[in-house]
Specification:
The chain has 322 residues and is mainly α. Strands 1-2-3-4 form a four-stranded antiparallel beta sheet, with no helix packed on it. A hairpin with an 8-residue loop joins strand 1 and strand 2. Helix 1 runs antiparallel to helix 2 and helix 2 runs antiparallel to helix 8. The longest helix has 34 residues.
Length: 322
C-alpha cells in the first residue's frame, strides 16, 4: 500500500528536509549527512481505542449487573446478613424488626470489586512499575496524547463502572442524590472522552485509577453504615481500626494533596499544546475535549474538598467520643 508524506523544504539555517507521515507516529528529519527518526504522539487517525475497549465495557456491564441481581435475589428474604441487620436509618418505610435492604448490601459488594480493580491498576502503574512516568514522554504533548495501555484499560474500567453506577443508583434512593449522580456523569464523561479521543493517558492513571485507592476502604465503611457490625467483632475492628484511618489518609493524599498539583499541571499542559498548535495537529477533531477536561476538573476537585470536610467532621466526632 502506498504512503504519502508531507515534505517541508530545507531550512535556510540547517538545510534539512522534514517528512511528516499523517498515518504514523513518526517524523523523519533528513539532514545533509544523516537521517534521524523522531517519535511523536500518536495522531487521531491511529486510534482504535473504542473498538478495543468496547468488549471490556460491555462484558463489565453484564458481569456487574448479573452479580448485583444474584446477590439481590440471594438476600431478598434475609432480615440479617452475616449476623448484621440494616440500620434503622435506612428502614424508614419498613418495620425495623423485619426490614430488608438487600439492594444496599448487593451494591456495596459489587461496586467494591470494580473500584478496587481501578485502584489496583492505578496504584501499580503509578507507584510499582512507574510506567505512567517512564513510558510517556515528559512533555505536555506526551502526557496528553501519547499512548499507555494501562491508562486505556483504566478509562474503560472507570467508564464501565461509573455508567453502571449511575443507572443502578436510580433504583436506590440513598444513592440517587444530585451530587452523586452528577459525579457519576462527570467521571464517566471524562473516561469516555479519554477512550474516544485517546488522550489524557498520564492523567488518566491518576484521576481514574489512583484516586480510587481510598474507595477500597470506603466500601467497608459504607457497608458498616448500612449494616452496622457487631461491636467487638472482627469486622468492627477492621472497619473502625483500619479502614477508617486508612480511608482518611489515602483520601487526603490522593484526592486533596496530589489532586490540585496534578490539576495545575493539566491546565499548564493544555495551555502549552493549544498555544503551540500541537493540539490541533494531533487531535484535529478533538481539541474541545481538552477544555471539557478542564471544565469538569474544577467541580470534581471542589467535590473532593467538600467530601473531605465531611471526613474531618466524622474524625472530630471520633476524637471527642461523640
Amino acid at each position: 500500500m502506498s504512503r504519502h508524506f508531507q515534505i517541508s523544504p530545507p531550512s535556510q539555517i540547517n538545510r534539512s528536509l522534514t517528512l511528516d507521515d499523517p498515518e504514523s507516529s513518526f517524523r523523519l528529519d533528513i539532514l545533509p549527512t544523516m537521517v534521524t527518526v523522531v517519535k511523536e504522539s500518536m495522531p487521531i487517525s491511529a486510534y482504535a481505542s473504542v473498538k478495543r475497549m468496547m468488549p471490556i465495557i460491555v462484558t463489565g456491564w453484564i458481569v456487574l449487573t448479573a452479580c448485583y441481581l444474584f446477590f439481590l435475589h440471594w438476600f431478598r428474604d434475609s432480615i440479617t446478613i452475616f449476623g448484621m441487620k440494616p440500620s434503622a436509618e435506612y428502614c424508614v418505610k419498613q418495620d425495623i424488626d423485619t426490614c430488608k435492604r438487600p439492594d444496599l448490601f448487593a451494591f456495596q459488594l459489587v461496586s467494591g470489586v470494580a473500584l478496587t480493580l481501578c485502584g489496583i491498576v492505578g496504584f501499580y502503574t503509578w507507584h510499582v512499575t512507574g510506567r505512567s512516568h517512564s513510558a510517556l514522554p515528559n512533555t505536555a504533548a506526551g502526557r496528553l496524547f501519547d499512548y499507555l495501555p494501562e491508562a486505556e484499560l483504566l478509562a474503560a474500567l472507570n467508564f464501565m463502572f461509573q455508567a453502571w453506577d449511575f443507572v443502578i443508583s436510580l433504583s436506590i434512593p440513598e444513592h440517587a442524590t444530585p451530587i452523586m449522580l452528577a459525579h457519576h456523569l462527570m467521571a464517566s464523561a471524562v473516561a469516555w472522552c479519554s477512550i474516544r479521543y485517546q488522550c489524557l493517558h498520564y492523567y488518566g492513571v491518576f484521576f481514574l485509577g489512583l484516586t480510587e485507592v481510598s474507595s477500597f476502604f470506603l466500601v467497608f465503611i459504607d457497608l458498616s453504615k448500612y449494616y452496622p457490625s457487631v461491636p467487638g467483632s472482627w469486622l468492627d475492628t477492621w472497619v473502625g481500626g483500619i479502614c477508617g484511618p486508612c480511608f482518611a489518609l489515602t483520601f487526603f493524599y490522593y484526592r486533596v494533596w496530589l489532586w490540585w498539583p496534578e490539576s495545575m499541571r493539566l491546565f499548564r499542559d493544555v495551555q502549552e499544546v493549544a498555544r503551540s498548535g500541537q493540539a490541533q495537529k494531533l487531535r484535529p477533531q478533538g481539541t474541545w475535549v481538552l477544555y471539557l477536561f478542564l471544565v469538569l476538573n474544577v467541580p470534581l476537585g471542589i467535590l473532593q474538598l467538600y467530601w473531605f470536610t465531611i471526613i474531618l467532621e466524622e474524625a472530630k466526632k471520633v476524637v471527642l467520643g461523640q
